[in-house]
Predict the 3D structure of the following.
Amino acid sequence: MTRRLVVVLVLAAALVAVCAAAWRITWLRGIDVLRQQAAVRADRTATALSDTLERYESLSYLVANHPAVGEALDTGSLAAIARADHYLEDANAHAHADVTYIIRADGLCVAASNWGQPDSFVGAQYRFRPYFVDAIGARVGRFFGIGTVSHVPGYYISQPVYRNGHIVGAAVLKLNLEWFPGTDANEPLFVVDKHGVIFLSSVGAWKYRAVRAVPDAVAASIEQTRQYAGAPINRLPMTPVRALDAADARIVRVGARGASPYYLLAERAVPGPGWQLMTLAPVDSVVDDARNATAAVGFGFISLCLLGFYWRTRRARLRDMVKGRARLQKAYAELNRRVEERTADLSAANAQLQTEVAERSRAERELRAAHAELLQTSKLAALGQMAAGITHELNQPLAALRTFSDNTRVLIERGELADARDNLEAIGALTDRMGKITNQLKLFVGRARPGNARSPVAAALRNALHLLQERLQRVSLQVRMCGPECMLDPQAWTKPCDANGYAPVDLATEQAELAAYCDGLRLEQALINLIANALDALESMAAPRLWIDIDAGSNTVTITVRDNGPGIPVDVLPRLFEPFFTTKETGKGLGLGLAIASSIARDCGGSLSARNEAEGGAAFVLALRRAADSTVAAGSTAAAPPDAARPR
């Protein structure tokens, strides 16, 4: 019963999947065909509209350059105005335009093609119209609006009229474009201006409605220019439903929710006036085709399932008949075979038991031998780890000694004895430091915890940066020191670095009283290892950056070393602090730096952890106990090595 239920559920799921696939394929194919048809219609319509506007724009240019027009605007004589009226009437009749008229520089219409009609434009004031402002500004004016005299919507094209090199007025051509969209309500077509307001539409109710929200400033400008004769500009209820692969087409719903139809919207830009032509194609036919295809595929799938069920039932009956006959013939032979198998199993079990006893005895002997070998290996490993630790910790001071020696020789040759004396003092300090390192590593090998030794954090960081100054020259370094008071001033968290990559605050004076429970030399060792590890990760970066954040809490001091390197692989994080584990190339590291830093943190009652940053790079967080009587000055910020620590 359970198996049949599973089969029925699987077939039902397959039916749903097949029907869904049939629906999607048919729907996508139909939408693609509809989109191509809509694109052809939109391209054809936009081209026709653009050609019409370009043709009449050329006519407005010819009118503006006619001598009669220039003379009428320049002299203003009655004879010149009469000649201009007759010329405009004749040109307008041949061009099949709505009205052609000229406007003086003060905005007054002085001549028009409809000069003899009751609704003549002569004497009307057009100074507020944008197309007049554009023409007076030596630009071609393009504007669609409702006429202030005729109250008939039209497209206005204006050209500046020059007389002796000066603009004396404007020539305007008005076109009636109400014929353009047509009256096909099944596939609506409309044109919107640059503000998103529909001014041409095959659906009359959509005129002067906006396809997107109109800002208050734009609405005020439309009202001021009387572009649409004060008609209220409401939002057309057109809601995007689904985007298509083509950027100029999408599925929209027009009307209130519920029974509102779905359309495929195609857009085309009309060059010149900045209009957008939009066509809507109903998707009902596509939905019907998808529904029919889905029904056909569903019935076909059900028929195949029924046929398969009949074939399987008939085959099962034949198979049961054959099995019944064979079962009777094999019953006696099966009984004998089982007796023989049971006897063989008992014999094999006995032999296996004897083998397991022998294997167990041998395993015990090997275990005792391995235990003895492990003890010897552990002794050798401890000795090797101690030697490797000494080598690793002495590498940095030795490199610094070489650098100071080379610099001292150059300074002596230059005669800069004061700087050379400083370098010799630094060399002496480094030799003392190397001696202290060999003594301090005994604590690492023996896991001996130091007492409540305290050391200033700023001094330890200054010495660590001083030791690594040569490697820090190619890195943009930023150091930040901050206490709880910095939370009140976000500007105190970060200061810009100087040209050498150091923060503009001296570590020798800032936060000098901030101390942690840790021996000074061991704290320097931990910081050197963390900073050197970050510098190794930044070797392949084009713009290496390093951040050192020191946050002082009430009981803890947290030192975070961050970089913008490649980060730490996820599979490496669990083993990052194991001795002798390294991801560097052979000869570039022993894998002891992070292990030593982690051991120092534990011995001082703190911790060391690592993580990958979300913006890239890795961060190592060293948390130590803060000395009870230490305080943090309010508003302290980033610090940098003193002048003596800068590269020379």
The CA atoms of residues 116 and 547 lie 84 Å apart. The radius of gyration is 45 Å. The longest strand covers residues 153-163. The chain has a mean pLDDT of 79.
